[in-house]
Specification:
This protein is mainly alpha-helical. The chain contains 3 helices and no strands. Helix 1 packs across helix 2 and helix 2 runs antiparallel to helix 3.
Length: 94
């Protein structure tokens, strides 16, 4: 991804705009975390809404529904944490 962004930077530099490597690192990290957490965020919202709907329809199954919901939210949140780690690697390591 950094190679693509660097080629964009080279095209911009040809138009007399100087874009440094630090700027590209910030842009790449911002895109990584921004795009990386939008999916889990939407997924967690859908999971919560579906669980509340299910509990409203069948209150006796509340315990099983909440357990499964929390487990699914944890898996979705793990994807957001992976995006955060990638963004941190892009900022501090690359």
């Amino acid at each position: 991804m950094l190679d693509v962004l660097m080629s964009v930077a080279a095209a911009a530099a040809a138009q007399e705009e100087a874009i440094s490597e630090g700027t590209m690192k910030l842009l790449a990290a911002g895109l990584a975390i921004g795009l990386g957490v939008i999916g889990p965020g939407i997924g967690i919202g859908i999971l919560g809404a579906a669980a509340m709907n299910a509990i409203g329809r069948n209150p006796e199954a509340r315990g099983a529904i909440l357990t499964n919901m929390i487990l699914a939210i944890a898996f979705a949140e793990a994807l957001g944490i992976y995006a955060l780690v990638v963004a941190a690697i892009l900022l501090f390591v690359v």
